């Protein structure tokens, strides 16, 4: 204990040592912050949650027929049926699934158009399978998107997992308001293109 006190007082009694400690502390702080952008340390606000269910949203371009939406949805279902850990699934064509936790503030239950479909996927109990639901989603997402999106150009397929925390809107929400409908549509397309070309979204 006395040695520690001597060490501390030696620093406090010397201006040079005090400055050196401050500089080293500041350097260590900023170097620790650099671990996140350089990905030396991977971090997320909430840990991955393995659930017994997840949803898939199929959005074909506005004006698409119900048959086109069904074609893409059946492609997705074809891949899902190959997974032994998927117990059952249900397709809601032209409408959203009954309101669940993930869709609480997304307005999923309000969907009533021919260019939308939602698939509810139920898995075997998480205690009886090795692969967590979020890892299954990460594995299936690129495979299904690569195979099914080209069937109808402009299709968007989203995998929606049950969130770990309270329900929230999407990470980025852009609302376009105005009186001229044609200008609103044109601007909305420009905004969507800009977001789709933004790395990390």
Description:
With 201 residues, the protein is an alpha+beta fold. Helices cover 38% and strands 14% of the residues. It has 5 helices and 4 strands. Helix 3 crosses helix 4. The longest helix is centred in the first third of the chain and has 19 residues, at 15-33.
Quickly describe the structure:
This protein has 201 residues and is an alpha+beta fold. 38% of the residues lie in helices and 14% in strands.
Main features:
single chain; 201 residues; alpha+beta; Alpha-Beta Plaits; 2 domains; four-stranded antiparallel β-sheet; 5 helices; 38% helix
Compile the SSE list and pairings.
Layout: H1 2-12, H2 15-33, E1 53-59, H3 66-80, E2 86-93, E3 116-123, H4 133-148, E4 156-161, H5 181-196
> Could you give a short account of the major beta sheet?
4 strands, antiparallel
Ends distance: 53 Å
CATH hierarchy class name of the largest domain: Alpha Beta
What Rg, in angstroms, do the CA atoms define?
Answer: 25 Å
List SSEs in N-to-C order.
Answer: HHEHEEHEH
Structural class: alpha+beta
Tally of strands: 4
What ranges have pLDDT less than 50 throughout 5 or more consecutive residues? none
- Domain count: the total is 2
Proportion of residues in extended strands: 5-15%
* CA-based shape: elongated
Count of discrete alpha- or pi-helical segments spanning 4 or more residues: 5
CATH fold field value of the largest domain: Alpha-Beta Plaits
Percent helix among the residues?
25-40%
Question: What's the CATH H-level superfamily name of the largest domain?
Answer: Multidrug efflux transporter AcrB pore domain
Strand order of the largest sheet: 2-3-1-4
Indicate the CATH architecture of the largest domain.
2-Layer Sandwich
The overall pLDDT, averaged over residues, is 84
């Amino acid at each position: 204990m006395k040695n520690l006190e001597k060490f501390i007082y030696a620093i406090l009694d010397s201006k040079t040592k005090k400055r050196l400690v401050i500089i080293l502390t500041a350097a260590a702080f900023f170097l620790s912050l650099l671990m996140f952008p350089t990905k030396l340390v991977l971090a997320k606000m909430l840990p991955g949650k393995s659930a017994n269910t997840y949803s898939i949203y199929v959005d074909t371009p506005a004006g698409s027929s119900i048959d086109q939406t069904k074609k893409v949805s059946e492609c997705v279902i074809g891949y899902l049926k190959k997974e032994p850990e998927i117990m059952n699934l249900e397709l809601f064509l032209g409408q959203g699934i009954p309101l669940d936790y993930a869709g609480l503030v997304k307005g999923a239950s309000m969907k009533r158009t021919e260019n939308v479909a939602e698939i509810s996927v139920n898995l075997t109990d998480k205690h009886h399978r090795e692969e967590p639901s979020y890892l299954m989603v990460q594995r299936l997402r690129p495979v299904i998107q690569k195979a099914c999106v080209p069937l109808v150009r402009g299709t968007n397929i989203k995998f929606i997992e049950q969130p770990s925390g309270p329900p929230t809107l999407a990470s980025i929400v852009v609302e376009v308001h105005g009186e001229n409908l044609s200008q609103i549509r044109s601007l909305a397309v420009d905004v969507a293109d800009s977001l789709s070309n933004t790395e990390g979204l």
